Description:
Elements: E1 3-8, H1 12-21, E2 27-32, H2 45-51, E3 54-57, H3 64-74, E4 80-83, H4 96-104, E5 109-113, H5 118-122, E6 127-132, H6 135-144, E7 150-155, H7 158-180, H8 185-205, H9 216-227, H10 232-242, H11 251-262, H12 270-279, H13 285-293
Parallel strand pairs: 1-2, 1-3, 3-4, 4-5, 6-7
Antiparallel strand pairs: 5-6
Helix pairs in contact: 3-4, 7-8, 7-9, 7-10, 7-11, 7-12, 12-13
Amino acid sequence: MKKNVLIMGGGEIGTAISKLLSNSSVAETELYDEKESLCSSSTDLLTLLGNANFIFLCIPSRAIEGCVLNLKNRLESKPTIISLTKGLGPDSKKFSGELLIESFGEDNVAVLGGPMLAEEIMEGLSTSATLGSTKETFEKVAKLFENTGLSLEHSTDIQGVSVAGVLKNIYAIGLSIADALELGANAKGVLNKFAVSEMGVLTQTLGGRPETVLEFAGVGDLVATANSPHSKNREFGRKMAEGDFDGMESEGSSSLPFLIERLAGKQIPKFLNAIIRIVLDKADAKSVFKSLIS
Length: 294
């Protein structure tokens, strides 16, 4: 018997997850978005929620708090809720895993992170990702993706997967700035070392396990995000280096001020501090990176 899967968010990643699950032998998917033109059917949200066995949250971080509250107020059953949101709630400054666990308990939620660029998924290219969840939840979600082109590894570190998803966007901006400045392969090697090391320290500081950064949700996603022409964080970093940002935002740049608030009173590591100076203080990127590397 097929499971009813509701995908909330009809943007690029929601559409990509829908395409993946169209190849699943055990999933029947519905795509819902506030824009009617992006919905897969005319069925109202309340009915979709009532039928859902699984709910994927493929929404921007600015909407995560309202969406979770909506679900908490409307859900009568206990579907498994999986977040792909890689940011912090703007009001609570909490990561998506924290928001889900607070509202629904650890047994019914998961966070999915990894190198999952929507454009490549839509082209039929295979990839792997990390699912932060309990063992029982992992087994249920992994079954949905069998033979779809997405392989899942399991982590019990829900917080770590949530944090890594935010940090990789921010550090991808930094690595993209270095690329745009043409600092060379040696400098890029130095900065990649800084990025991975600092992500491990920060993940532990924020309640996760440092080794989670070495999984698909951390290093895997960082490499994809920092190097893909499809990445908005990469594009943002390039524009920052060129002084041509003109009000542009990305998930990484939007999360940066909220991350700083979460780290209040904690030591800010040097590569992250360099990114903060360039993105928020508009310091000269070349000077900041020259000082950082030397």
